[in-house]
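Margin note from the TA: students keep mixing up input and output lines. Inputs are the sequences; the output is the structure of the whole complex. Example:
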Amino acid sequence: MGVAKNKERFRIPGEAANVVKTLKNKGFQAYLIGGCTRDLLLGRTPKDWDVTTDARPEEIIKIFPNTFYENAYGTVGVVNEESPDESLRVIEVTPYRLEATYSDYRRPDSVSFSDKLEDDLKRRDFTINAIALDIGGEEDREFYEGRLVDPYKGQNDLRGALVRTVGNPHERFSEDALRMLRAIRIATELGFMIDSDTEKAIEKYGNLLGNIAKERIRDEFVRILNSDRPMIGLELARRLGLLKYIAAELEQGVGTAQNQAHAYDVWEHSLRSLQHAADKKWPLEIRLAALLHDIGKPASRRWSDEKKDWTFYGHDVIGAKLAAKILSRLAFPKKTTETISKLVRWHMFFSDTEVITLSAVRRLLANVGTEHIWDLMNLRICDRIGTGRPKESPYRLRKYQSMIEEVMHDPVSVSMLRVNGADVISLTESSPGPKIGHILHTLLGEVIEDPKKNERSYLEKRVRELGKLSDQELE
Ligand code: ATP
Ligand code: MG
């Protein structure tokens, strides 16, 4: 790992360097700070660029043509609309801030500004995030000589791969409880350990996370999931007692033994399934579904004397409900919640290609939706790898995939039928109501069994027949 000496050359994109240079030309102090300095020192690509300065919000706004207020802490977003790089479109400039008192474990009671960089570094969360980088004139295209201000020896912790609070961890976590989850997230993303005193404080103060807004917890959770090592991150969260503030339901999988097809308990199986999704660089939806696919298992586990093994009947149905509950509690977008709940609901699909019919594949397609069918297949791959003893052969899954491709364009939803609601209304001479939907769904059932029946004259004939049935009979 390349950790810089006190003077070194840094590659800073023009947009970020300009913000610093402009502030300095106007007589202010300005430093790159936080994640960007840390990532530069680690040789990683910064996710965003933050600047800290002794200029006050009004002064920052006066200097730059296009700005907006980011938050209640005096942060001003400097906008570079034309930047081709998304991470440079808004550069956050924050005035030096003083540490304030916190009475609700999450937000300072008041924000006050300072003229001293040292005050600002002192209020930052971790030593590796409290290194300020001062840049001189440009030496070569985008390369600058830099000087580091590092009073908390963040560079030592970068070398030792350690996340350690600035100052006393007990105090810092009781000021803002989210920092505990940030510690885990940052350690997970960087592949770092958490310093032992910092860890002890997390174990002691974890319950304060109950005061933190679900959205903020969700954002850190998502970053853990989207990292390269979500399995390590979530196991660390569990070990330090924070998992229950993400989703207490997950903890019930710890020590929940499974049937003989599995090498691991429900928790470890879920983690290994998730890790496979990360190894494949699959998107968040698959990662979440992999983590939650067996969330219904602890509640549905029964011992079978006959099988001499555990059974989990209905865990897919229970799991779909639990997954939706967890994700809406964490304020995930409704669409994400619905997708994952659906994937959990149908993850047990029967896939024995020796026995299965094309209409069964069409029924699955109708249930999960053509837009999610490949997600479901990927979830199945994660599930299979996560058992530790994959039983299902990759050959069988490939065969199943080709069956999906075969039926992919067959009619599997009401909207794909050759008659629509208006047709049904006029053919049955009835008025709009639930009956129309029942008729359409009955037709869909027939067409899924035999796609050749999706033909106008046949469907019209069936509509007339079905129209004569009573509501109860149709249902
Ligand atoms: P990344 O950009 O990869 O998300 P980051 O460390 O830059 O990582 P940000 O959320 O962008 O994270 O925060 C920028 C900086 O602000 C941090 O590096 C840290 O110095 C400070 N910071 C952020 N959140 C807190 C907090 N809750 N308490 C104290 N300081 C914080
Ligand atoms: Mg940042």
